[in-house]
Amino acid sequence: xxxxxxxxxxxxxxxxxxxxxxxxxxxxxxxxxxxxxxxxxxxxxxxxxxxxxxxxxxxxxxxxxxxxxxxxxxxxxxxxxxxxxxxxxxxxxxxxxxxxxxxxxxxxxxxxxxxxxxxxxxxxxxxxxxxxxxxxxxxxxxxxxxxxxxx
Length: 151
Fold this sequence. Notes:
The protein is an alpha/beta fold. It has one domain (38-150): Glutaredoxin, CATH 3.40.30. It has four helices and seven strands, in the order E-E-H-E-H-E-H-E-E-E-H. The protein has helices at residues 50-58, 77-93, 109-114, 140-150, and strands at residues 4-5, 44-47, 66-72, 98-104, 119-120, 122-127, 130-136. It has a five-stranded mixed sheet with strand order 2-4-3-6-7, sandwiched between helices. The chain has a two-stranded antiparallel sheet with strand order 1-5. Strand 3 (66-72), helix 2 (77-93) and strand 4 (98-104) form a beta-alpha-beta unit. The longest helix is centred in the middle third of the chain and has 17 residues, at 77-93. The protein starts with a strand and ends with a helix. The relative contact order is 0.24. This is Thioredoxin domain-containing protein. Residues 17-151 form the Thioredoxin domain. Residues 1-35 are annotated as: Disordered. It comes from Rotaria magnacalcarata.
C-alpha cells in the first residue's frame, strides 16, 4: 500500500467517502471488566482538537500504554484501505494495551502542522507522552511490527 503526499498545504477534503467502517465497535457495557478503568482502550478515539489530543496523550491513565495516532484524510485511498484493520486491532488484537486515535488532517491542521505531517496516512506512536516512532504509508505489516516493539 502506498501513501498520499502533500506539498505542505492541507487540501480541502472531498468528502466522497467515510473513513469509519460500518462495523460497530464493542460498547462500553460489553467490555472486559479489566478494560473499564480506561475509557480510551478498546475503541478508536476521534480527536477533534489540540486540547483533546493533549488530554489523551498526557492522561495519567495512559502512562504505560502505547498510543497510536492515525493522521488521515477522507480523500486518501491508503487511509481508507487501512481503516478497517485499525478498528479490528482496537477491538481485538490490541484492545487492552494500545490506545488508537484518529486525526483528520483537514479538520485539524494545527495538529498536522505541529507534527509536520506530509504523507498520509502517518502514524505517530507515543509512549509516556513522547513520540517514539513514526510510520508513513498504509502498510499494516510495517505498522504492526512497530506497535509490537512497544507493547
